Amino acid sequence: MADPLLEVRDLRTYFHTFGGVVKAVDGVSFDVRQGEVVGLVGESGGGKSVVGFSILGLIDPPGRIEAGEILFAGENLAAKSEEEMRSVRGGEIAMVFQDPMTSLNPVYTVGHQMDEMLRLHTDLDRKARRARCVEMLEQVGISEAESRLDAYPHQFSGGMRQRVVIAIALLAGSRLIIADEPTTALDVTVQAQILKLMRRQIVERGAAMIMVTHDLAVISEMADRVVVLYCGKVVERGRTAEIINAPSHPYTRGLLDSIPRIAERRDRLDQIPGTVPDIRTLGKGCSFRDRCFRAQPVCAEKTPVLSPVRGSLDAACHFPLEETAP
Amino acid sequence: MTPPVLEVKDLVKAFPVGGFLDRLQVGKGSLLAPQRQLRAVNGVSLTIAPGEVFALVGESGCGKSTVAKTIARIYEPTSGEIRIDGEDVSRLPFRAMLPVRRKLQMIFQDPYASLDPRQRVRDIVMEPRLAQGGRLSRRELQDEAVALLAKVGLNAEQANRYPHQFSGGQRQRIGIARALSVRPTLIIADEPVSALDVSIQAQILNLMKDLRDEFRLSYLFVSHDLSVAHHIADRIGVMYLGFMVETASRDQLFREPKHPYTRVLLSAAPTLDKSNPGTKIEIRGEVPSALRLPSGCCFRTRCPLAFDRCAVERPALKPQADGSAVACHLHDRTDTERMIP
């Protein structure tokens, strides 16, 4: 098997607030291989966005990467200086943010913002850069690209803006794209177009993508592998089809069961009881135990470690679910 | 048959847009400031029977929330009829609306913005009762508030807290308790679960179902999420650009969607069920501006099946043999010559 493009090893990102230390990411490990889409899923507060920001070194005080390695093509990004990271961002690794309304600068034209990426990361001349921008806009499905380059972001609709953001992310030929809820702000018909576009671009370029989202349905259509986060920890990871069809961690199961499905209508949705605990006051033991239907006394005593369960699935659970679990 | 709880006929809501200076233009040698209108809702009709859940679905900007808010008279309707229990309330002045609000309450999308941060929860949930002129002693108020909160799964001790002490899901429960306080027959819920995490979303959907059974409520449930609408609704109306393009029972709509837009919407929604992956219908472009509606059919600019007539004539919502109604020229004819395969 090919070497992974990105290896995240035991990443810990903590926020030191007045209310206590928030362990937003607490020992997260996963790999991303070339040509692959890896989904990070979980509910709000799971730490999935912070993982994405940590990889790009976008953690501001009071937050800090406390420990762990982020190996990108063999180099540890966590040890790089801010100066070095600036050439990584947008170059080798690009990011697509959730909100296309705010991730573009309203006072510069779209062309200017695309050009900036090429100016910083390539040594093409002005004409070649312009041609490249036009080509890129066409690839993401924007017609009359030449004239659209001189338009300002407010002259684009939400879907079009997200296309521009994706075009910018793809411009410098990044090998890894981190997409943080890229289609959450979009309508379903536009979402379908954007997802298809992103998937095609990843495959064609042999790049890789980390897709951060709360939407398991999107993940099931996009990702090759899934990492499920809960309270800053990986609770389960494995191949998408296996996780969606027969998850081994009760939390993943609960998430899947609480989504209304059109194919099989149930009178009531199976709900996960309770709410996400306060991440500052987590003690030892499994952080999901209070909401878990399989919890035993041992769950409060010992923190479960991520270990192989079956097939490609790893889970952090003392009592993982069998494949045929009810 | 029992009369419908809500009957809306040809509801139109247009918003004037642009300031005076924005609208200024020179025409025929003089300075003009023509009135521009954003036509958010263009003649929507719907009825809701007692105990029925009617879901309005569509993408952002399709006017589904505007319909909900206009029915609740948060917006003034431009024209059309809104009948609640047979009484036309579309022109009632503010004071005369008060007794109507005993029958109709609303649940909002954002559980953070829809509760007054300076009021205690018990006062929030009893506010509609007091607005109705209810005279209650302190003791009665407290008891009623606790009883209401119990209905939505919150305990007595929480009645004295403030909204910021609750999570999003709990706040939405408070919003529901507030709506229930006057024992309405109809609740208008505008995207009540879209701001919540999936596990919490399931809790709220289950609660809303239970309450419907317990109090014989009708819901007008606005949602952009088809699987949520499928879960809770008895009937579904699909809106596009301010028009109702199709109404049908839930099963009919999902088994046999008729309007091309409904088909697109159903096929575009990502699902966990990988039963038929390769059948996505391609659709190009985005929703046109409501400031300049297309001539003829609202969907023709993106419709894969559009033909000449669609640009000329606006299709009306016509009842079909199976009880659904579709606004599409392809379903207009009695013969099957033009029926979509």
Tell me about this structure.
The complex is a heterodimer of chains A (326) and B (341). Chain A has 326 residues and is α/β, with parallel strands linked by helices. Chain A has a single domain, classed as P-loop containing nucleotide triphosphate hydrolases (Rossmann fold), CATH 3.40.50. In chain A, 32% of the residues lie in helices and 24% in strands. Chain A is built from eleven helices and twelve strands. In chain A, strands 6-7-8-3-9-10-12-11 form an eight-stranded mixed beta sheet, sandwiched between helices. In chain A, strands 2-1-4-5 form a four-stranded antiparallel beta sheet. In chain A, strand 4 (63-72) and strand 5 form a beta hairpin. In chain A, helix 3 (110-121) runs parallel beside helix 6 (158-171), helix 4 packs across helix 6 and helix 6 packs parallel to helix 7 (188-205). The longest helix of chain A is centred in the middle third of the chain and has 18 residues, at 188-205. The two termini of chain A are 35 Å apart. Chain B is of the alpha/beta class. Chain B has one domain (6-103, 184-331): 3-Layer(aba) Sandwich (Rossmann fold). In chain B, 30% of the residues lie in helices and 22% in strands. Chain B has eleven helices and 14 strands. Chain B has helices at 20-23, 64-71, 94-100, 121-131, 138-151, 168-180, 198-215, 226-232, 250-255, 260-268, 308-312, and strands spanning 6-17, 25-27, 30-32, 36-48, 53-57, 79-84, 87-88, 104-107, 186-190, 218-223, 235-240, 243-249, 318-319, 325-326. An eight-stranded mixed beta sheet of chain B has the order 8-9-10-5-11-12-14-13, with helices on both faces. In chain B, strand 6 (79-84) and strand 7 form a beta hairpin. In chain B, helix 4 packs across helix 5 (138-151) and helix 6 (168-180) runs parallel beside helix 7. Chain B is globular. Chains A and B meet through helix 7, helix 8 and helix 10 of A and helix 7, helix 8 and helix 10 of B. Chain B: It is found in: Cell inner membrane. Chain B: InterPro entries: AAA+_ATPase, ABC_transp_ATP-bind, ABC_transporter-like_ATP-bd, ABC_transporter-like_CS, Oligopep_ABC_C, P-loop_NTPase.
